[in-house]
Design a protein that fits this description.
Elements lengths: L3 H13 L21 E5 L2 E4 L4 E4 L14 H13 L9 H12 L5 E5 L2 H16 L3 E5 L25 E4 L4 H11 L3 E6 L15 H14 L2 E5 L22 E4 L10 E5 L4 H6 L10 H16 L2 H22 L4 E4 L6 E4 L6 H12 L2 E2 L14 H19 L9 H12 L1
Parallel strand pairs: 3-13, 5-6, 5-7, 7-8, 8-9
Antiparallel strand pairs: 1-2, 2-3, 4-10, 9-10, 11-12
Length: 425
């Protein structure tokens, strides 16, 4: 694999960007061979800055739902760009997109649009407090809801006061949730829940219907707002809010990543139970009302309503899961695949410091398959059964390669340091 351009870009980036590249797209906690910069994306494939090509199972950390550069979506965006994008007020598309989303998501009576998932979750928190006049927000331990001080997983620069009314409970534990609600007393504003447990570094888990229903009941009893953070999973599990699958409807849901197929937009949807709070807060951004991503979102949603993209992703994901299980077993590995098949996570037994997972991921990368060693991944509609066969064949070779390296593998230095710091806290 060519690396010359990548290495030069990293050298230059160290001078002008904090840590080279910051945030969740930094490769500092990935295997050393992972590319940091990409020059092209098309369909289900990526090309890095040196021209190396990969089948991409990260899908840009989720925004790629239909395929990079889907021509139907891009044409809608281009047509709107010629008419206008960021203007003194929104285009009519804002009303039309809100109608589209309210029409697709059963708990929703209204919509607000922003740019990032963090924007949407922070608005949801603020609206819950405005609606209830209370302060305490419950979040599941280890859950990711964005990068603002109240929720960032990296607490540098965060004050205790920033999180003074953020309390934790254990996902899927009715007992833990009830205890957290009791501790909040009459000051509970809202309960956040992920559509399923998709924390980094650990197995994913489906939501327990008893836990989800108890969260709904507790919000009904206390007047608090139930918030489902669907930024990562929205429209990947169903053409509705993800918790509709278990029959529990939130008051607020947050959306992002995929509903405009990679164009920059996110959303907060809410029921009439939270309408007054939504109307009361001040939330805005210079680019929140831009028309181009709204055009892309409308085109994407039409495709989601009219095609079998969802059923296809389940079919391909099921096929892939079976093939990887067989390949791992044949090589003598206990290989865990958790979460929905269209949003898989790959981990190894007997691999507490991820050295096996890192080695296998690097072996896959050398074979042109971009997987992640500790974060959930995604399938997109541009993938085919041929792509799944390519992945299974690469995995079979990668498992055998790693099997021969087990005695020489070493843990990733920064990851080991992070685990040591967490253990000491």
């Amino acid at each position: 694999m060519q690396r010359d351009i990548h290495n030069e870009l990293q050298r230059r980036a160290q001078r002008v960007l904090p840590r080279g590249v910051y945030g969740h797209e930094s490769t500092l906690l990935l295997p050393d061979s992972y590319p940091q910069f990409f020059s092209k994306a098309e369909g289900a494939y990526l090309w890095d800055a040196d021209g190396n090509k990969y089948l991409d199972f990260m899908c840009a950390y989720g925004p790629n739902l239909l395929g990079y550069g889907d021509p139907r979506v891009n044409q809608a965006a281009i047509d709107q760009l010629h008419r206008g994008d960021t203007m003194p007020g929104p285009s009519p598309l804002m009303v039309e997109l809100a109608e589209d989303m309210v029409g697709m998501v059963q708990h929703a009576d209204w919509a607000m649009f922003c740019k990032n998932g963090t924007d949407a979750t922070t608005m949801a928190k603020t609206i819950a407090r405005a609606q209830t006049g209370k302060r305490v927000i419950l979040v599941a331990t280890g859950a990711y809801h964005g990068a603002m001080p109240w929720c960032t997983p990296m607490p540098a620069g965060v004050l205790p006061e920033d999180r003074s009314y953020i309390r934790q409970y254990d996902y899927n534990s009715v007992e833990s949730l009830e205890a957290a609600v009791a501790a909040a007393g009459d000051d509970l504003a809202g309960i956040f829940a992920a559509p399923f447990k998709h924390d980094a570094f650990i197995d994913q888990a489906e939501p327990d219907p008893a836990y989800a229903q108890r969260a709904r009941d507790l919000c009904n009893d206390t007047g608090a707002m139930l918030i489902v953070d669907d930024v990562r999973a929205g429209f990947r599990l169903t053409r509705d809010c993800s918790w509709e699958l278990i029959g529990v409807r939130p008051d607020l849901s947050t959306w992002g990543k995929s509903f405009a197929n990679g164009h920059p937009i996110s959303a907060l949807l809410g029921s009439d139970r939270a309408r007054d709070g939504a109307a009361a807060i001040y939330a805005t951004g210079s680019f929140w009302f831009a028309a181009v991503p709204m055009a892309a979102a409308r085109a994407t949603l039409q495709i989601l309503r009219e095609t079998d993209y969802l059923e296809k992703s389940v079919r391909l994901g099921t096929y892939l899961r079976a093939g990887l299980d067989t390949a791992a077993s044949d090589a003598g590995f206990s290989f865990r695949q958790t979460g929905p098949v269209q949003m898989p996570l790959f981990l190894f037994d007997d691999d507490p410091d991820f050295r096996i997972g890192f080695a296998w991921s690097e072996a896959m990368l050398r074979r042109g398959i971009y997987v992640h060693p500790w974060h959930n991944m995604f399938l997109c509609d541009a993938m085919t059964e041929t792509d799944m066969d390519l992945t299974i064949d690469a995995a079979r070779d990668a498992f055998l390669e790693v099997r021969g390296q087990l005695s020489t593998l070493q843990p990733h230095a920064l990851l080991a340091e992070m685990f040591q710091q967490r253990a000491a806290e």
